[in-house]
């Protein structure tokens, strides 16, 4: 029996879908009110590919699907009377200062740095975890390097190269609290320490932390005031990351048709969310309603 010609493309498409879709596909429709178009949290507009942490749905087999890229999940929490958008990277929380959709840039600041008063104590390096699949440094990235809990007393007699560090680079704000172990702390811009001195210093300190900062802001700040609190102001201005879709052909097709890519927790592409509540297995061209925005 010959198929009516009108239906042929339809069956061909099903064949294509079956061959490109892996894992558990989403049901053919989803509840559009779960994936809100945009949400404002603390003055920051959260839109695809970002999504609120509650904007995830469940499929029939309880697989969670996201309304955007797996790791670009933003929590909007109430901090006193202020809403604060935060994102988790590599297990640490960062406050979202702003998101620029036209140049695909997100500005983040370490939440410890924002809450730590004028001379904050940072506690961790910035690691992306799996989010590196979507995020890269952009703009003019630079670093501040911190050495905490240092004991240079012995070094003063042994290594003269370390002596000069004390005046110029030692953190000397009154409100700085190094923690229970005490010791001296230092802050350097990139390139200020030569390799051998750096490792000599690191040997005498309990912790080394490298924090990305905005290079333009760092350069325009008073370098000699960094140890007395200037570093805190630079940290609070945050750093810039660019987002990109992965080299993920399925998501590219979906976005080209104005759809929104949905992923599982384990970053498997699950389907293309179209604005009319239909789920395209590949894109929104056949769904009759591409997403707006
Ligand atoms: C990821 O999740 C999907 C959907 O839950 C599942 O089908 C797939 O097997 C998982 N893949 C891996 C590598 O765990
Ligand atoms: C869609 O989701 C909203 C928000 O979670 C819920 O109130 C509503 O009942 C859901 N609609 C359907 C048809 O499930
Ligand atoms: C998610 O949280 C926001 C802010 O609390 C709320 O406005 C929105 O309705 C929630 N969405 C769902 C699907 O529960
Ligand atoms: C938020 O950004 C999206 C994407 O650029 C845009 O469509 C939407 O109008 C913006 N919403 C607000 C409240 O600014
Ligand atoms: C990050 O924020 C989440 C949600 O607000 C919270 O549950 C978690 O404990 C925080 N993690 C860290 C390391 O502070
Ligand atoms: C992105 O655009 C914003 C607003 O126009 C601008 O302030 C920022 O410097 C830009 N960032 C990059 C990395 O181009
Ligand atoms: C900043 O630190 C990172 C990680 O330690 C390093 O890869 C990068 O090259 C540094 N950037 C600059 C400008 O020194
Ligand atoms: C932070 O990164 C630096 C260099 O990239 C490394 O030497 C240091 O041990 C790291 N610190 C922590 C606490 O992981
Ligand atoms: C900041 O200054 C350093 C050293 O002079 C220079 O290499 C870097 O390009 C400058 N960065 C910006 C964004 O101006
Ligand atoms: C830079 O900071 C140093 C140390 O706090 C201060 O003595 C100096 O006046 C500042 N320079 C400018 C131009 O503000």
TrEMBL record:
UniProt keyword S-adenosyl-L-methionine present: no
Localization, UniProt: Membrane
InterPro entries with a match to the protein in the record: WAK_assoc_C, WAK_GUB
Alphabetic keyword roster: Glycoprotein, Signal
Membrane topology: Single-pass membrane protein
One GO CC term, this protein: membrane
Pfam families reported in the protein's UniProt record: GUB_WAK_bind, WAK_assoc
Domain of life: Eukaryota
Ranges of residues in domain Wall-associated receptor kinase galacturonan-binding: 35-110
Signal sequence range: 1-23
Wall-associated receptor kinase C-terminal domain residues: 173-277
GO molecular function: polysaccharide binding
Name the record gives this protein: Wall-associated receptor kinase galacturonan-binding domain-containing protein
Lineage, uppermost ranks: Eukaryota, Viridiplantae, Streptophyta, Embryophyta, Tracheophyta
């Amino acid at each position: 029996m010959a198929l009516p010609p009108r239906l042929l493309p339809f069956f061909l498409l099903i064949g294509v879908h079956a061959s490109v879709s892996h894992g558990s596909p989403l049901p053919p429709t989803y509840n559009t009110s779960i994936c809100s178009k945009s949400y404002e949290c603390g003055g920051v507009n959260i839109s695809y590919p970002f999504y609120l942490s509650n904007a995830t749905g469940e499929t029939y087999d309880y697989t969670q699907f996201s309304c955007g890229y797996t790791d670009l999940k933003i929590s909007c929490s109430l901090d006193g009377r202020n809403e604060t958008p935060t994102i988790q990277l590599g297990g640490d929380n960062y406050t979202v200062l702003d998101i620029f959709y036209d140049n695909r840039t997100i500005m983040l600041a370490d939440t410890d740095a924002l809450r730590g008063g004028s001379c904050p104590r940072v506690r961790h390096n910035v690691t992306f975890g799996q989010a590196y699949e979507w995020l890269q440094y952009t703009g003019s990235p630079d670093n501040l390097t911190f050495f905490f809990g240092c004991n240079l007393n012995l070094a003063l007699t042994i290594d003269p190269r370390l002596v000069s560090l004390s005046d110029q680079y030692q953190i000397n704000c009154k409100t700085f609290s190094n923690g229970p172990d005490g010791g001296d702390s230092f802050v350097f811009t990139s390139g200020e320490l030569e390799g051998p001195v750096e490792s000599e210093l690191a040997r005498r300190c309990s912790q080394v932390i490298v924090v990305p900062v905005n290079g333009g802001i760092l350069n325009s700040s008073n370098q000699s005031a960094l140890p007395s609190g200037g570093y805190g102001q630079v940290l609070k201005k945050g750093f810039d990351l660019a987002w990109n879709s992965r080299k993920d052909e399925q998501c590219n097709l979906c976005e080209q048709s104005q759809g929104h890519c949905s992923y599982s927790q384990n970053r498997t592409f699950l389907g293309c969310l179209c604005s009319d509540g239909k789920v395209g297995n590949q894109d929104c061209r056949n769904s009759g309603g591409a997403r707006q925005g």
